[in-house]
Amino acid sequence: MKKYLFTLFMIAGIVLISCKNESGLSATAQKNKDVNDAIMKAYEAGDFSKMGDYIAADAVDHSGEMGDIKGLDSIVSEMKRYREMVTDMKTNTIQEIATDEFVYTWADGTYTMQGQATSMSSMDITKFKDGKAIEHWVYMDPKDVVKMMQMQVPADTAVVAKMDTLQKK
């Protein structure tokens, strides 16, 4: 009986181990991570041709300047708009955690915007279903948000002066 139980446990252990890949992620979590990485690389390169392979047609990006951005076409349009504002974009993933439903990415990046070299740090959360991104949130350090806003507003406006005053406090 002990031999039988030992053999049964060994077989079950081998089956469980073989279901995991080298990184310890499930196949679904690994696919989500790979898709997330592909989205980030394509964005960095400014190549939006395959976004439909990675993002669902009815996806929602909750990080739009004016609220939710709904649908693949609208999301890609916004991605292109943002990407055109920045040049020399380089992203460095600090840490990434993937599950069967979400990928959490903490990254920093450098880029040039309005002729100014700058950097920022962000936490992206992407929800996946059937191997495609269906929702996205991004959280940035408030000082990085202010810095980006200052670069987007013409320098002679009162808004920039007020932001400078607030930032110095």
SS element count, helices: 6
Order of helices and strands: HHHEEHEEEEHH
User: What is the molecular shape?
Assistant: globular
Mean pLDDT: 84
Q: How much beta, percentage-wise?
A: 25-35%
Strands ordered across the widest β-sheet? 2-1-6-5-4-3
Roughly how much helix do the residues carry, as a percent range? Answer: 40-55%
Indicate the radius of gyration in whole angstroms: 21 Å
CATH architecture of the domain at 25-141: Roll
Report the structural category: alpha+beta
At the fold tier of CATH, the topology name of the domain at 25-141 is Nuclear Transport Factor 2, Chain: A
Task: Report how far the terminal alpha carbons are from each other.
Answer: 75 Å
CATH class of the domain at 25-141: Alpha Beta
How many strands, what sense, and barrel or not for the largest sheet?
6 strands, mixed
DSSP strand tally = 6
**pLDDT below 50 for ≥5 consecutive residues: which ranges?**
none
What would you say this structure looks like, in words?
A hairpin with a 2-residue loop joins strand 4 and strand 5 (116-129). This protein has 169 residues and is α+β, with helices and mostly antiparallel strands. A six-stranded mixed sheet has the order 2-1-6-5-4-3. The chain has a domain at 25-141: Nuclear Transport Factor 2, Chain: A, CATH 3.10.450. It has helices at 2-18, 27-45, 51-54, 72-85, 142-152, 158-168, and strands at 55-61, 69-70, 86-98, 102-113, 116-129, 132-140.
